Amino acid sequence: MSIVQKAKKGTSLVEVMTAALILAIVMLGGSFFYVASTNQINLREQYRAASRLAGQKLEELKAGSYDDVTIGELKDSLTLENSTYSRNVVTKDLGLYKKVAVTVNWGPVGMERNVSLVTLIAPK
pTM for the complete prediction? Predict the structure, then answer.
């Protein structure tokens, strides 16, 4: 009589550890992707806010009288959406037109970001 040993069914410790390692690698990669995408979303929101601030200033100047647009440089600071923005308005007289450049800066030192918008304003 021969004794036939049946194969045991189930998972071994090596298989479980391999599966756990693969799962850990996938989750770590996913967390890096999540952090990177969150940072990009915040940066895009800041660019959008800076563009709005620059555009609002240009619209404000264009809506006023041509003579009220003063030549020179004007600086102010604004807080919007939990970030502080520095806005710099430079106006130059080009004879028939006034050239207005609005630059909005934000971010920590060494990693500053900026948005610039330029327009020409003519007498009405």
Answer: 0.74
- pLDDT digit string (tens) for 85-117? 999 999 999 999 999 999 999 998 888 999 999
Residue 15 backbone dihedrals phi, psi, to 5 degrees: -65, -40
Phi first, then psi: give them for residue 104, nearest 5 degrees.
-115, 125
Do the strands 98-106 and 113-121 form a parallel or antiparallel pair, or are they unpaired?
A: antiparallel
Is 50 within 8 Å of 106 (Cβ atoms)? yes
CA 85 to each of CA 34, 55, 97, 121: distance values in angstroms, whole numbers, following the listed order: 26, 14, 28, 24
Domains in the chain, please, with CATH?
13-121 (2.20.130.10)
Residue 102, judged by CB atoms within 10 A of its CB (0-12, 13-18, 19+), counts as: buried
